[in-house]
Design a protein that fits this description.
Length: about 280
């Protein structure tokens, strides 16, 4: 949003043409911004124009040339690997990783959590405006081992303002500790952000409605959410197993129906034959 403000400040909507938008793109590319980041910014500006057209403030909106994005990363971590990695992490990072794995929250949001946002009694985390990436409040359920680990953190740092602390200070960068733990766990490829993908996928696979999953993860647009909700190889195998089971049940059902119909027909034929035998002879 700040980049849009910096570039288009004090410009009338009619002055923001496709040519001007291309100039914005060129400037962001020169700043080494990724195609995905630029597209998200353009999507926000396009939304503003579309709303203006809907309200009748503008007649038309300019064309927005979107950039080609790299395929979405497909990094996921299964629960068994997560447990293995958590054992290798320093103790002060285990609760951080657990929060990310279960909720799909962004790392920046996790490290900013204060105790006054944690409602242990009702098992809920309330994020206030200004503490989230999109500046919108949201609530996140706390349950199971995630809830228990937060209790441990509270006992470890009873007087702290922030939830996740190390040596009396809020946790900052931990790149080296992370990479070392991943290497020991045999997960060299793993990025911390893969927890976000995993958390979102787990919510959806668990049957949580996508609308609710988006509210927990903090996604405002479905397009971005779908880039995280990626089908994995295991999902495809599960789908194949379910399909095979469904078709097998249909086959059994069809066989039973056929046998029942054949039985009914046999009974009819048998009764007809008996009746024929009982017919009086004509001399």
């Amino acid at each position: 949003m700040s980049h849009l403000n910096d570039f288009f400040a004090r410009q009338r909507a009619l002055a923001i043409t496709t040519t001007r938008i291309r100039e914005f793109i060129a400037g962001r590319l020169a700043d080494c911004a990724s195609n995905g980041t630029i597209n998200r910014e353009l999507a926000l500006l396009r939304r503003m124009f579309n709303l203006a057209v809907e309200d009748g403030t503008l007649r038309t909106a300019p064309h927005f040339p979107m950039l080609k994005e790299a395929p979405a990363r497909k990094g996921f971590i299964e629960y068994a690997d997560f447990q293995k990695l958590r054992q290798e992490l320093p103790e002060y990072l285990r609760s951080v990783a657990t929060m990310a794995y279960y909720t799909g929250m962004r790392l920046g949001e996790i490290l900013k959590i204060r105790w006054n946002s944690v409602d242990s009694k009702n098992g809920e985390l309330r994020l206030d405006p200004g503490t989230t990436k999109n500046d919108e409040p949201r609530s996140i359920p706390l349950f199971g081992e995630l809830h228990e680990m937060l209790k441990i953190e509270r006992e470890r740092n009873p007087a702290s303002e922030f939830v996740f602390m190390r040596d009396g200070r809020r946790i900052g960068s931990f790149y080296k500790a992370w990479k070392s733990a991943c290497k020991r766990a045999g997960l060299d490829w793993l990025l911390f952000h893969d927890f976000r993908r995993t958390g979102i996928r787990n919510l959806v696979r668990a049957g949580v409605p996508e609308r609710v999953a988006m509210a927990i993860s903090g996604h405002k647009t479905r397009a971005v959410f779908e880039r995280y909700n990626i089908v994995s190889g295991r999902d495809l195998k599960d789908a194949a197993t379910k399909l095979e089971s469904y078709l097998a049940k249909q086959k059994v059902k069809k066989t039973r129906t056929r046998k029942r119909e054949m039985g009914d027909n046999s009974g009819t034929i048998g009764r007809s034959a008996v009746s024929a035998n009982k017919m009086p002879r004509v001399n």
